Known about the structure:
The complex is a heterotetramer of chains A (374), B (353), C (327) and D (345).
Chain B: E1 4-9, H1 18-21, H2 29-45, E2 50-53, H3 60-73, E3 81-84, H4 93-106, E4 110-115, H5 117-127, E5 132-136, H6 149-160, H7 166-169, E6 170-180, E7 185-189, E8 192-196, E9 212-217, H8 227-234, E10 244-249, H9 252-257, E11 262-269, E12 272-284, E13 297-301, E14 304-309, E15 315-327, H10 329-338
Helix pairs in contact in B: 2-3, 2-6, 4-5, 6-10
Chain C: H1 10-35, H2 50-57, E1 65-67, H3 73-78, H4 83-90, H5 124-138, E2 144-149, H6 156-167, E3 172-178, E4 181-182, E5 185-186, H7 187-190, H8 196-202, E6 207-211, H9 215-230, E7 236-241, H10 261-268, H11 271-281, H12 287-310
Parallel strand pairs in C: 1-2, 2-3, 3-7, 6-7
Antiparallel strand pairs in C: 4-5
Chain D: E1 2-6, H1 7-21, E2 25-29, H2 55-59, E3 63-65, H3 70-82, E4 86-93, H4 101-108, H5 111-114, E5 124-129, H6 144-148, E6 154-156, H7 161-173, E7 178-183, E8 190-194, E9 206-209, E10 214-218, H8 222-235, E11 240-244, E12 247-249, H9 253-263, E13 266-270, H10 278-289, E14 299-302, H11 312-318, H12 322-333
Parallel strand pairs in D: 2-3, 2-4, 4-5, 5-7, 6-7, 10-11, 10-13, 13-14
Antiparallel strand pairs in D: 1-8, 6-12, 9-11
Helix pairs in contact in D: 1-7, 3-4, 8-12, 9-10
Amino acid sequence: MQTDRIKPIVMPKWGLSMSEGKITGWLKQPGSTVNVGDDLLEVETDKITNVVEAGDAGTLRRVLAEPGNVYPVKSLIAVLADPDVPDAEVDAFVAGFAVPKGDDEEGGEDAGPQYLFADTPAGTLRYAKRGDGGPTVLLVHGFGGDLDNWLFTIDALAEKATVYALDLPGHGQSTKAIADPSLAGLSAALLGFMDTVGIGSAHLVGHSMGGAVSMRTALDAPDRVDSLALIASAGLGREINQAYIQGFVAATGRRDLKPVLEQLFADTSLVSRQLVEDLLKYKRLDGVDGALRALSGALFANGEQASVLGGDVAAAGKPTLVVWGKEDRIIPAAHATALGSNARTEVIPNAGHMVQMEAAGTVNALLKEHIGRG
Amino acid sequence: MAPVVGIIANPVSARDIRRVVANAASLQITDRANIVLRVLAALRACGVTDVLMMPEKGGIRGHVERGVVRARAHGDTPYPAIHLVDMPVTGTVADTHRAAAAMRQAGVAAIVVLGGDGTHRAVVAHCGSIPIAGISTGTNNAFPEHREPTITGLATGLAVTGKVPAPVAFAANKRIDVCVNGGELREIALVDVALVTERYIGARALYRTENFRELFVTFADPEVIGMSAIAGLLEPVARDESGGLMVRLATPEQRQAGTCGTILHAPIAPGMITPVGVTDWRRMPAGVPFVPEIKAGSIALDGEREVSFSARDRVSLTLRDDAFRTVNVGGCMRFAAQNRLLAGAPAPLPATA
Amino acid sequence: MTENPFPLDRDDLLKAYRIMRTIREFEERLHIDFAKGDIPGFVHLYAGEEASAAGIMMHLKDNDRIASTHRGHGHCIAKGVDVHEMMAEIYGRSTGACRGKGGSMHIADLSKGMMGANGILGAGAPLACGAALAAKVRGDGGVGISFVGDGASNQGMFLESLNLAAVWNLPAIFVVENNGYAESTARDWAVAVDSYIDRASGFGLPGVTVDGTDFFAVYEAAGEIIRRAREGGGPALLECNMVRFYGHFEGDAQTYRAKGEVEAIRASRDCIKIFAERVIEAGVISRAELEAIDKEVLDLIEDAVRAAKSAPLPAPAELLTDVYVAY
Amino acid sequence: MARKISMKQAINEALDLEMTRDPSVIVMGEDIVGGTGSPGEDDAWGGVLGVTKGLHAKHGNRLMDTPLSESAYIGAAIGAATCGLRPVAELMFIDFMGVCFDQIFNQAAKFRYMFGGKAETPVVIRAMVGAGFRAAAQHSQMLTPIFTHIPGVKVVCPSNAYDAKGLLIQSIRDNDPVIFCEHKNLYGLECDVPAESYAIPFGEANVLRDGGDVTIVSYGLTVHRAMEAAEALAKDKVEAEVIDLRTLSPIDWDTVIDSVERTGRLVVVDEAHPRCSIASDVAAFVGQNAFGALKAGVQMVTAPHVPVPFSPVLEDLYIPNAAAIADAARRTLAPTGTSPRSIAA
């Protein structure tokens, strides 16, 4: 069997808690030609609705999953193959398809803990670890975010790397107290985390404020940072959407938070009821309000970013990838060029500040390539 | 006509501050009323058919009436008929004064008193030669003897119906007359007069021994509580012997300087055993006026501050023997036993007087 | 100087007199102004009962709390509530103790430990238990005192509170101000077990009855009861037998009272007169000193009335404020 | 981190966290320790249904059993609140308000206003509400409307463990008296609840399900019946938006009005009796403020105007169920907006 000529399309696993997804609609019809990065279909989970992009090219030979129905993750929902592959061979592939076992060390879908906790000098930090072997990648979320911001990223990168994603202090399910709300303080917390879980050095992938933290880390501890991937990153210019920061900090209810969150996406319909509710649940936790106010005061006071690190990072000479969503309403995409020729820069159309979610396929491909080179 | 017995039951004795400072007992109204019912039953058993009671609004009367009505509904007549003194009720000691005087006028054969030393003093002040039978429902009771009221009722019944001859049935008692400014004010005490430095009446009860200065007692009994106990622990003087005792108490300065003769641990109130500095003491003969040494303060009669006086006031104290009569309960009951007064009679004893 | 035979020093004697005199003048003035129609609503006057409020409150600090009754002016003044604010409140002015929202029956000042007059009879008793509980939990030595009239002592809330205070051994004190009348109904008729001390005994509390027209009797008994409570000895009940100079409320014709009763008690049982005679007779305070206080108090009340009458009325927007901390 | 715990555990955890955080928080009620002074175990019951079990061991005398004397101890909790404590008093069954209502509505509710804004009464009164426990007329009522009627008290009624914890913590921290209503038939229901402390603000309804065809508003246990009704309606291609009010005083009118303006149809579900209920309150408010948006008459689904019966067959009829809610929703979608008057009204 020439299975390399036949490419399965499976129900994606977005985030550690996703076990099934509902097909809301196919964007390609059976028989149509598919290129890498094309929008294939829309899947809805209890967290988010998103488009599944093609990771391979070919002809859409079979569509097995019907809109409106729910399928487990990694189950076969469609088949891509070249036009010359016989129908019988495609049918045999479908008949013989087995849902692959989970490839993480926990050895199974629900066998192990989805999240881990590390007692670090900066407090207890929650993290996730996926994949084994290959380069080590550390994903650093932004202001008010958490490791689930890497919902569409972590498993994709884990195919060829050991990927960690953490909740910074004050975020997610980590300790809410932030001893030092500066970039240096967050960077120290990051390094403390790497020490605790035994990461010598890693490719740092930072989103927004996490990008600035990653840059600070690369400057403070260059031997711990193999490369930088900066996604809609802070630290590359002064401007920042102050209304967003203030609105996010101040919001206490669904009705005031939702319009704030809509600024994060080019497609505002991605802000689902559940996404809003999850963020509210986070914001209600004791200590979060204080942490966010401390951070916004230290990093984004008076409507601008306190630290611009572009020049220093350019001078440091680490391999650097800069990715931006063209429709970013939080930090202008113009900052993407701040490192000039010292970085590879990609600005992705039809995506906002949460570009790693809105254009996950594209961003994942860029990250894989960037890490692979490093 | 059968003898009539008076009953004065004070509804408000034993309500003072000694419940807070000394854990003193407090007899509830229903218990007081039950005592009255027990006394009534005893009197009836001896042939007393009518009693004259002091009216009050403290609740005793209502409870007693319920007891009588219930007995009647049951078909029994264990109680004498109850008559009330026709008088207004003020809720003050004036009621007791008025009732005692009215009973004396009505010619009752004896008055059963329910109360403390203060109530007994109020009755004695107005009852003249009518004998009283005391039942303790107060706090600092040195005067009325502690005894089951049924026995007091029986003794009174036997005494007033003449079954026990008067010389056995009644006993003579002493008192101290207090005279201020040559008769402007006259008070009496049955057991003790204490002169204290506090010049306000306040909550009345005596419990701050550091303010005690002089003490005069009609009898000094180491078995009772209060001022009489201080004297009784120094030199007992019986109720039936002539004269009393006068005790001078140390000032705090004298106690501090160690110049007082004796420190006595005396039960001055229920649960209060307090060191009292005693300078000296001597007999107080009957009929001899005593003038206290302290110039200003309060006069406490039978344990309660009653009168305050200043340097301008002239105070004198005189003990009187044979000042009033009481029913000798022990004597009556011993006589009754010796003469089998309560033996063999199938029906209530016939009245003989 | 004459030796002071009283348990209070001269300053405190003068203070006690000033409190009682202030209450008396406050109430007498309300009596007059009410008759003139100057005052909206009901007022229940405390005149005649001053020795109870003063004799008890002289022992208290701001962290001691009292829960008062509908007849609360005297308690307020004795507990240190500002007389100007009280008068303005009774006049329904925005400068009142409750900004014109409470009136006579709801004057409160928590900062002074005054938890409020109360239009619901007997309701203060559980609240005072709460104050006592708070003091006990914090261990600050404070006490909670509930004032209740002879009538309201029949309320279940009051009787339940006696039990709760005993069970929890709270530093709670229940003061029964027995003026003989539950509104118009005689105490003698309305209270089944005729002794409040028996009620206390029924719940295991010691009880003390004092002559409530004798400041020194109240002062001394309250002092011992409060000390006992502060020392962990638990709750107690104090019955003050006293007299009411006026009706249940102003406008009450008092046809239920005996002829000459009020005149008699004013003549013989006026607690302020009795106090004044004692302290003057003892040579501790001069009549002139008391008269000087009388004058100052009269001026104070006059000024309070003048200020109240000229104070602004609450703004219409006040109708909707102070319902919730945020809503 | 979040884990699945029951509403009973969530309430216990909220009390535990707040007592740990703030020494002025005390907890009192009948049997909340259980066994005080009895010859057997201390903390024998931990509340009549075990909600406060184990707290006595951690917090000692700050957890206080009370005599069966609601007037006194609810009043004492209120008095203590005005003196700086944050008492949480358990009334056990809300039906017992009859013996202590004065302290709640004449005292606690009025202090702030009556004293000109100078008094704070941060007391929480926890009480079980609701039918379905086979406890009949005096232990099963949904008396939320009575408290909601009183200015000065806040009224909370969570529908799940997550909300119960966050709303109870908010209730304890709130500086007004709060009546915290716990539906006893929800005690065992589990959901994801963070281990940390968190407070859910009052007056913030929860939208449990999006839908554009009809709005279903409810609170407490009947929220779950409303969700079942919405699932049933979805099978008929009717998408219902389900709103859980969470707090009844204050109430989140904006969320209700926003939803009705989109759907044009409203069903209000209330386990209380129909007259002067939360249901009639919401219906009236929408009628006054969003009349133009309504495409059909507002439907109320409530308990009937009768006491809660005992016999299970009758009690089950009494409680609003999913079928009745779905029927009510369908009535709003029927071409003729009117419907037969229900026997309950």
